[in-house]
Fold this sequence. Notes:
alpha/beta, Amidase signature (AS) enzymes
Amino acid sequence: MTDLHKRTLSELAGGLEAGDFSSVELTQALLDRIGAHDETLNAFVTVTGDEALAAAERADAARAAGEGGALNGLPIVHKDIFCTEGVKTTCGSKMLDNFVSPYDATIVERMAAAGAVVLGKANMDEFAMGSSNETSFYGPVKNPWDLARSPGGSSGGSAAAVAARLAPAATATDTGGSIRQPAALTGTLGIKPTYGRVSRYGMIAFASSLDQAGVITRSAEDAARLLGVMAGFDERDSTSIDEPVPDYVGALGTSLDGLKVGVVRQHFDEGLDGDTGARTREAIAVLESLGAKAVEVDMPNIDLSVPTYYVVAPAECSSNLSRFDGVRFGYRAPDPEDLLDLYCRSRGEGFGDEVKRRIMTGTYVLSAGYYDAYYLKAQQVRHLIADDFKNAFEDVDVIAGPTTPTPAFRLGAKVDDPITMYLNDIYTIGANLGGFPALSVPCGFVKGLPVGLHLVGHHFDEATLLRCAHAYEQTTTWHTACPEAFE
Length: 487
Ligand code: GLN
């Protein structure tokens, strides 16, 4: 069977169920593709071929015995930010290049218990700080649509692997847009659930009040399947919320009758590339043709989301990353002169430039003389932004707009200009600041490069977002497009 890589996760589930092929055959086919293409793409930090084949064998045996969970025998990839027992977990950093986790993250554990087969660990920006995958210690990931361009970040490896059909789905994380932005730039679907919906246990922390785990897939149905397994209360994460998890797959339908879609006025200003804006408007028109009603909404504080984020996120990361000191775990500089030299050189040599920039910014905004002016102020503005969403949600069910201001940019184009790089997440960060669920679904092309429609939902209403994206996919073909070199 030569076309297994072309199928979505749901199609593969059907094929396994029907006995058309085994999980071992499927896993081997994808490992062969990874072997053939990953040198070009650099989407993986680690490929776990032997472990994957062993897991596939167990899944086949379980199926033969009439057992097996919701993901039995289905191959996935984990972003290298999730701890995986016995397998290196680097977070894209030299600091953790030698770190083999002694335990599994909750989502890794839940997906394994459901029978998923892990093909490997995906490349990412260092500690998830970045929008282009260029901050990774393991080098940039290439965009399968144009190898000279970035796949976005920080979950660039996850997005590129799914877009290039090296895996049907991948886990990812999103602190300011790192699931949705790479999904948009690679023509895949990415969903960031509500803050607290998916456990953060075993997910290496960047900015704890913003970080959330989700998935990158090739369809809304696939995302619904995976989210159903990942989501739900976890007593090991104190911010996990004990809310019932709905049947996400069961909630999918084709009509959007009566759905109210808010279109944010501020998102269509001069910062948005004209063609990307046009694709977004066309996508909103498709939602209307399916029964939705679009209304303009005003979010007066939304333009403050990037500066607010770049105070809050660095502040939290400066605290979270203080644990990497060369003593407890991680990189340790050789032959230190004394303890101070050990700390300074381990951190100096173990972290890359972007991570250092964030730690320094974070330490500054939290320092005694500046705390009120920056950190406290940012927390206040964060509330105003969340209130903008809450006010909009008084009238609408979802908020729609572009996921990114432009399609994929060239590798190297923004590395020396952090502010321009930061502006990539201008439309996505608001959802993190307010803890709202959001997704990006492919909505067309600009000069041969994919772009995404961004949808934000009410807290805990991932189901409506998935329903919307699914209905949209039933009348469009953007999500099925495959980069030519990876057919
Ligand atoms: N690009 C943003 C940053 O660099 C968001 C990253 C993320 O969501 N992990 O902080």
